[in-house]
Amino acid sequence: MKKLNAVLAALAVFVCTSAMAQADDLTFTLKNGTKSVLTRFYTSPVGVNEWEDDVFGEQVLEPGESIDITIADGRTVCRYDMRFEFEEGSGLDTTEDRQDLCKLGSYTIHE
User: pLDDT class for 47, splitting at 50, 70, 90?
Assistant: First the structure.
């Protein structure tokens, strides 16, 4: 019986921890306010020296379009560095910015 109680207690902690991690997900709308295709979008918490994976994967964000972004990395930080890369030949340089994503409802990238 003690083993069953220990297993149930561990399961309860896991479920609570998972629910808290989901509650901490950062969600915002990214809008492409440029005239070029946004091909890659990276985020990393401030202080992390390498970019995380490309958020878009195989997708792109066409001019004028928007997409809902969810960062579900389980971290409890709000300040993220962002990196935007545009299609080759667009004439736009790679752009970087830093934002508090906990307070951000939407973000528009401009030329």
Answer: very high
| Average pLDDT over every residue of 7-34 | 64
Q: What is the pTM of this model?
A: 0.75
Residue 27 β-bridge partners: 70
Q: What is the 3-state secondary structure (H, E, C) of the chain?
A: CHHHHHHHHHHHHHHHHHHHHHHCCEEEEEEECCCCCEEEEEEEECCCCCCCCCCCCCCCECCCCEEEEEECCCCCCCEEEEEEEECCCCCCCCEEEEEECCCCCEEEECC
